[in-house]
Design brief:
The structure holds 3 protein chains of 3 kinds.
Chain A: E1 12-21, E2 24-34, E3 39-44, H1 50-58, E4 63-70, E5 73-74, H2 80-86, E6 88-91, H3 103-110, H4 118-124, H5 126-131, H6 133-137, H7 148-160, E7 166-170, H8 178-193, E8 197-201, H9 205-211, E9 214-219, E10 222-228, H10 229-232, H11 237-243
Parallel strand pairs in A: 3-8, 3-9, 6-7, 7-8
Antiparallel strand pairs in A: 1-2, 1-4, 4-5, 9-10
Chain B: H1 2-28, H2 35-52, H3 57-80, H4 86-108, E1 123-126, E2 129-132, H5 133-155, H6 157-167, H7 169-174, H8 179-205, H9 211-226, H10 231-252, H11 257-271
Antiparallel strand pairs in B: 1-2
Helix pairs in contact in B: 1-5, 1-8, 1-9, 1-10, 2-3, 2-4, 2-8, 2-9, 3-4, 3-8, 5-6, 5-8, 6-8, 9-10, 9-11, 10-11
Chain C: H1 2-9, H2 14-25, H3 33-58, H4 66-83, H5 88-112, H6 115-135, H7 137-140, E1 146-147, E2 153-154, E3 157-158, H8 161-184, H9 186-196, H10 198-203, H11 208-234, E4 236-237, H12 244-257, H13 264-274, H14 286-299, H15 304-320, E5 352-361, E6 364-374, E7 379-383, H16 390-398, E8 405-410, E9 413-414, H17 420-426, E10 428-430, H18 443-448, H19 459-464, H20 467-486, H21 502-515, E11 520-524, H22 532-548, E12 551-555, H23 559-565, E13 568-573, E14 576-581, H24 583-587, H25 590-596
Helix pairs in contact in C: 2-8, 3-8, 3-11, 3-12, 3-13, 4-5, 4-6, 4-11, 5-6, 5-11, 8-11, 12-13, 12-14, 12-15, 20-21
The chains are: A alpha/beta, B mainly alpha, C alpha/beta.
Chain lengths: 247, 285, 605
């Protein structure tokens, strides 16, 4: 039963989600929410189920239990390509762009759901190039040859081409140099200002906390902490969660 | 020169088969054993249209394209979709190939039927060798089709989506690409392409129920030479196989061409198993 | 109630033996000569299909070349019987050898590129048969066919058609006995491991390429024998008997009977001979029917009639068996090391040295000069964020990836650049992030697979059940039982391994690695997906392995487990080692906190 979205209701609401790969269950009971114009940071140790949660929200992994609700509409059983049209964008970890295709081709593919012809879509690339000028200079370069930071920018730009209302980023700073991490985080903060909701999985906890509005921590597939970011900063709760001292 | 022209024109047919294999390979990472049968069916439809029913040429093209496209659609639903994995597909598509062979035989029998040319069938001398008009049309059309497909795959959004899907299925889904429908489209396209080119191929190969098996093998050799997934490789591989066959027949005797093509296949597999345009990929755990 | 129980207590070869005796004695049981001929043809088709099962069913390579090997055997026998010496025993051997050669020649290139290539080269081979017969017209009679093959003689005595039937039946029975002994031996398990997971096979020290070639080549032998027999039975050979239709018939009989079964091909062949092949009206519909059949068999029927029979038997057995002794996988109580279980026998560890190893994938640096040493009797842990290169390093050690520079030593031997199965044979065993167990294999067989290459026993010994095979099999069984008791899974020995819960399968993977008596044991995220109790049992097992003397390398996400268990910890980030030390040092290492955990100093007071 979907109800019309109101100002108060969150953009994304995940309730009691269970998911995994084959018979290996990685997420047992995850609930979280993301509001429009806000950043929810999803934390947890390696193997805590963060990536699986994002994949289940994107529809790549089946939800064995629980529900995924976007703007009041239950999309739990909707196939992944239709979720993109519904406004969900996922930037997978490890900069999973199409490495054999050029920057421009990758961005065009990002706008695949827009229903525009190629000429019109090419014009739509301009805002992305404006946001990431280095991509504009190398638009006809095979993207596998880009540096790690540029690949991450491209991956984000590609997701933005579909004009998502919810953007999920899986460890966008993974494997990047500290200066590039700062650049990525600045980009994330700028995106938040445009009004879209962001679900951010990060291992660079401190950097992520600086931009976070809400913090959710997973451990062994279950939520062990879910609070506004302001309550979390400076407390021991996080470090304890990471080192397994809660258990 | 005559054997070279003849080799290039039969090579164009092998290239077409290899292109069909390749499109399915790009879309499904699997092998469609029955593709040559689709082509054979189109040739028989052409024979029927021209000789038996005496229909207008354009109508024959249309019937072949739609008919064979529908057969491909059926094949996708019964032999590709229900099973997973290239090995399982080998069995089901081999079943489809055998079924189409048998159906063709039931309808048209075992005779070798001459398929008239859809246009002029004049023969003329080119660079010192004899070549017929249908052969010229065949070679030119196949090169044009291959080039058009290469350009389309790199330039159009749909072509890009297909290549993206071949590279990373999950990532393609996340860009909103309906990979199942796109793959089905590609599969049906191979049927439509076989239907459209059947009338061009028929005069060269004649219509006979054992044709598909021969085409399948030589098409596969063309694919192995060019490399799985490479359209330019398929084109080049097809011409190479055609030339080997034609020149062997001319210089070494009529019993040897097929055996020679087999030797070429063995050599390629031994020396460069990824083909001329193929890429090696590191194994992953 | 009592009868089925007694039946189940009989050895598994009893029923096949009874049927074999019936087959050989059939002429004296009042069958007509027509039926006798059908049985004869069934035997020949069964030989062909059984050979196909070895490569297609058991190792997963679709090969259609059986028809070509059959033709080789038939024509060679026909020619030699007319022009050289007419002795059935000798010519059967010659035909088998010739078919083996054809199998090797066509298998080598076909297997280099994997499944489709073998299917296509062997398919090609079949279509070449008429061409070769034509080319060798002087010897084969070309399209006209070979006529004038004499009646068979055996050791000087001419065989009547009744004698010939008995000979064919006996040879068929012998071949099925060979198949049975091969498949039920450790080699049969190795074939199935290969089919389900080449990666697992090579990590157990099995050379994937050689093993597949072996299966394909052995499968050629019955085809050659069948050819020789057919030449003597029909005394007339023509190209159309050996074409593509035959290849598909063989495949159909194999799939119908069950491609992954020992006796299935005989049933499949019988159905084909009694049904479609007998009626003359059928001929024009052959291909249509076969085509539909292959599609249906490929999509709907799992493992043919044998599969259906097995399921029926299992269902009946479940009904007859009192529920108390039923071991249902899902209901199995938690498994784990038994406190009073046997101790591990002492194991010899070896020092593993990784020196300045570099590896790039395209433009991406996966490992940028990693150096570390793991010593016997210690647990060396490898931790780091996702994508830091842990698994790459593991795969580099195992030989899945070639490194760009650097070296890897095991003890005094360099293992850099060696293939995976070589590294495994040198003494490196591993587990996988997703436990790998082939379907339909019992726990005992799956765990025993660890001993396949360290204590190799040849196929001839297994087929003939020589004393030294029996001794090795008994020793393996004892050792596997010990290891299973150690991990607390002894009572699951006869359950299908793939059906067990994840935690149990992880323990069984460790058990399988232990059976190989490894010098170095690599554990790849062995705790992921386990609950707290399971992790505790696992930790106990890992400690026992360390105590036994093996070098243990633990790649793990679970930081707590690593801190508690490891003797030395190496931390990887972006393909480089950023810290090495004892658990205590690592827990308080500032770079580890900032780089690996991303937690800045000030967050943790």
């Amino acid at each position: 039963m979907s109800s019309p979205a109101t100002v108060e209701s969150p953009l994304l609401e995940v309730r009691g989600l269970a998911s995994g790969y084959g018979d290996i269950r990685a997420v047992w009971d995850a609930s979280l929410q993301v509001r429009a114009g806000e950043i929810t940071v999803l934390l947890g140790r390696n193997g805590a189920g963060k990536t699986t949660t994002l994949r289940a929200v994107a529809g790549l992994n089946r939800a064995d239990a629980g529900s995924v609700v976007l703007r009041g509409r239950d999309i739990t059983g909707v196939p992944p390509h239709q979720r993109v049209r519904a406004g969900i964008g996922l930037v997978q970890e490890g900069k999973r762009i199409f490495r054999r295709r050029t920057i421009e081709e990758n961005l065009l593919l990002g706008g695949y759901t827009r229903g525009l012809n190629k000429r019109k879509l090419l014009v739509e690339l301009d805002p992305i190039y404006e946001m990431f000028p280095t991509l504009a200079q190398r638009r006809h370069v095979a993207s596998g040859q880009l540096s790690g930071g540029q690949q991450q920018m491209l991956a984000i730009g590609q997701a933005l081409m579909a004009q998502p209302s919810l953007l999920m980023l899986d460890e966008p700073s993974g494997g990047l140099a500290p200066s590039v991490v700062a650049e990525v985080m600045a980009t994330v903060a700028a995106l938040k200002a445009t009004g879209i909701g962001i679900l951010l999985v990060e291992q660079a906890v401190a950097a992520a906390l600086e931009v976070a509005d809400r913090v959710t921590v997973l451990d062994v597939g279950r939520v062990i902490l879910d609070r506004p970011a302001a309550d979390v900063a400076g407390s021991d709760a996080l470090a304890d969660a990471y080192f397994g001292r809660l258990r | 020169m005559t054997p070279i022209w003849s080799g290039l024109s039969i090579g164009a047919v092998y290239a077409l088969i290899a292109i069909g294999y390749n499109v399915v390979f790009i879309a499904y990472t699997t092998f469609n054993f029955a593709h040559a049968q689709l082509m054979m069916f189109a040739i028989f439809v052409t024979y029927w249209g021209l000789v038996v029913a005496q229909l207008p040429v354009l109508l024959i093209f249309a019937i072949a394209a739609v008919g064979v496209g529908l057969i491909a659609l059926l094949e996708e639903f019964v032999a590709i979709r229900p099973v997973k994995g290239a090995h399982a597909h080998l069995v089901t598509t081999l079943g489809m190939a055998t079924l189409l062979d048998g159906t063709t035989r039931l309808i048209w029998g075992d005779q070798v039927l001459k398929v008239p040319a859809v246009g002029s069938d004049a023969t003329f001398t080119l660079l010192g060798g004899r070549i017929s008009a249908p052969e010229v049309v065949l070679v030119v059309s196949v090169v044009a089709i291959a080039v058009a497909m290469i350009v389309y795959s790199r330039r159009s959004l749909t072509g890009l989506a297909l290549l993206a899907m071949a590279e990373d299925r999950d990532a393609a889904l996340l860009r909103g690409i309906n990979v199942k429908r796109l793959a089905l489209g590609a599969f049906v396209f191979t049927g439509v392409l076989a239907g459209l080119t059947g009338p061009l191929v028929g005069p060269k190969t004649f219509a006979v129920s054992t044709l598909a098996a021969a085409l399948a093998l030589k098409g596969f050799v063309a694919l192995a030479i060019g490399g799985f997934g490479s359209l330019p490789g398929a084109l080049l591989g097809g011409f190479l196989v055609g030339l080997v066959e034609s020149l062997t027949g001319r210089w070494l005797g009529s019993q040897l061409p097929t055996i020679m093509v087999f030797v070429v296949l063995l050599l390629i597999l031994m020396l460069k198993p990824t083909g001329l345009f193929g890429t090696t990929r590191e194994r992953m755990v | 109630m009592a009868l089925p129980r007694q039946l189940r207590a009989l050895p598994s070869w009893t029923i096949p033996l009874v049927l074999a005796v019936l087959l050989v004695a059939a002429p004296w049981l009042g069958i007509s000569s027509g039926t006798r001929r059908l049985l004869l043809l069934t035997c020949i088709l069964a030989l062909l299909s059984s050979g196909l099962n070895l490569s297609f069913g058991y190792t997963g390579e679709l090969a259609l070349g059986q028809a070509a090997m059959y033709a080789t055997g038939a024509y060679l026998t026909g020619y030699l019987a007319m022009h050289w010496v007419n002795d059935l025993a000798l010519l059967v051997l010659v035909a088998a050898a010739a078919a083996l050669v054809v199998g090797l020649v066509s298998g080598v290139p076909g297997l280099r590129l994997g499944g489709w290539s073998l299917a296509m080269t062997s398919f090609f081979l079949v279509l070449l048969v008429p061409q070769f017969l034509d080319l060798l017209e002087h010897y084969t009679g070309g399209a006209v066919g070979m006529v004038g093959i004499p009646r068979p003689r055996l050791f000087g005595a001419e065989l009547s058609s009744l004698d010939m039937y008995v000979v064919v039946a006996l040879i068929t029975v012998c071949w099925f006995a060979v198949m049975r002994n091969l498949i039920t031996s450790r080699h049969g398990v190795a074939f199935q491991v290969l089919r389900e997971s080449p990666i697992l096979a090579s990590s157990l020290g099995i050379s994937v390429y050689r093993m597949k070639l072996t299966a394909y080549a052995i499968g050629a032998i019955p085809a050659g024998i069948a050819g020789a027999l057919f030449a003597y039975v029909d005394k007339y050979l023509a190209p159309h008997s050996f074409g593509f239709t035959l290849a598909v018939t063989v495949l159909a009989a194999s799939i119908l009977g069950g491609a992954k079964s020992i006796y299935g091909p005989f049933v499949g062949a019988a159905v084909m001979q009694y049904g479609p092949l007998r009626s003359t009206e059928f001929e024009q519909y052959t291909q249509v029917v076969y085509g539909v059949f292959l599609i249906l068999a490929g999509t709907l029927v799992a493992n043919g009639l044998a599969g259906l029979a097995n399921r029926a038997v299992a269902r009946l057995a479940a009904r007859w068996r009192p529920t108390s002794d039923a071991v249902v996988a899902g209901e199995a109580a938690p498994v784990g090391p038994a406190p009073d279980g046997p101790a591990l026998p002492p194991l010899t560890g070896a020092r593993l040295e990784v020196t300045d190893v570099r590896k790039r994938f395209g433009g991406l640096q996966a490992l940028g000069g990693v150096t570390l040493t793991a010593v016997p009797g210690q647990i060396t842990a490898l931790i780091g964020p996702n994508g830091s290169g842990k698994t790459t390093l593991l795969n580099v050690i195992c030989g899945y990836y070639r490194i760009d520079s650097g070296s890897i030593h095991l003890g005094d031997a360099e293992i850099t650049g060696r293939s995976t199965h070589d590294v495994a044979r040198a003494g490196v065993a591993r587990t996988f992030q997703t436990p790998l167990f082939p379907e339909h294999i019992t726990v005992r067989e799956a765990v025993a697979a660890g001993a396949y290459s360290p204590r190799h026993v040849g196929m001839p010994a297994a087929i003939l059940r020589l004393p030294h095979y029996r001794r090795a099999a008994a020793a393996d069984r004892a050792e596997v039982d010990d290891v299973l008791r150690l991990v607390g899974a002894a009572r699951l020995a006869d359950v299908e391994a793939a059906s067990l819960p994840l935690g149990t399968r992880r323990l069984l993977e460790v058990a399988r690695a232990l059976v190989a008596r490894p010098k170095v044991l690599l554990l790849d995220e062995v705790a992921s997906g386990l609950d707290e109790d399971e992790i505790e049992r696992l930790a106990e097992l890992i400690r026992a392995i360390r105590a036994a003397g093996t070098t243990v390398i633990l790649v793990e996400h679970n930081f707590r487990l690593v801190l508690d268990q490891a003797d030395a910890i190496h931390v990887l980030a972006q393909g480089e080692l950023i810290a090495s030390g004892t658990p205590n040092e690592i827990e308080n290492h500032p770079r580890v906190l900032s780089e690996y955990l991303g937690v800045r100093q000030e967050v943790r007071p």
